[in-house]
Amino acid sequence: MGIWRHLQHWLIGRGPQLLTTEFVPETHAIRLWADTFPWEALVQAVEQSFARRFPKKRPHGGRPPVSSRVLLALELLKHELGASDEDICQRLRTDVAVMYACGLREIQADRSQAHFVLPETLAQFRHRIDTELMDELVAIQAAAAMEKGLVSPAHLLVDTFPSEQGSQRVTDATTLYKAQKKSYDSSSRSRAKARHQPRPCISKHRS
Question: In sequence order, what are the residues at sequence separation of 6 or more whose Cβ sits closer than 8 angstroms to the Cβ of residue 156?
């Protein structure tokens, strides 16, 4: 309901209705990728951090902001695919698998809409993520992986990426765990007829 409330200005267009869960195959690489994340906990951490550091009153009237769930998924998926802000935002408009990854389950939009999320909006979201929030997101993902029994604490690996333009970014550091790769591999083996396999994670690990 939260994502619908935030994005209802383009989800209730005049176009045909589409259910992403029915359209995107369970074997699709992006769907497999998205299903490895504890989204509810990650989004809660982001929203609590932003509310504490950037308190503001919601203006009367106008459209509500884009959901943190959508922006966080776009930022993570952008790095997973090696895309630019412009590319990943455009794919949200045209790629149903990206819509699924962003938590959008029912879509009904007008073809005249060029973007659902502007690249500038994604950039603003990224710049609000500090080191403390990054560490919290990593910890949440690690805890979820251990809870599922995919890794042990002794074997947990976290990627480290340099910040861009002096700002801390949400990157594959929150996603590149052995747990995720194991989840990919298990899902792929269980679906022998899958046409697409998730891209292997290329990472730099600190010794």
Answer: 142, 145, 146, 177, 178, 179
The 8-class DSSP code of residue 201 comes to P
How does pLDDT run across 67-79, given as a tens digit for each residue? 999 999 999 999 9
Kindly report, residue by residue over 77-121, the tens digit of the pLDDT. 999 999 999 999 999 999 999 999 999 998 876 677 767 899 999
Residue partners of 40: CB distance under 8 A and separation at least 6: none
The separation between CA 93 and the C-alpha centre of its own chain, rounded to angstroms, equals 15
Q: What is the pLDDT of residues 169-193, one digit of tens each?
A: 333 334 444 444 444 445 545 554 4
Query: Distance of CA 142 to CAs 83, 129, 149, Å?
Result: 25, 18, 11
Q: Is 50 helix (H, G, I), strand (E, B) or coil?
A: helix
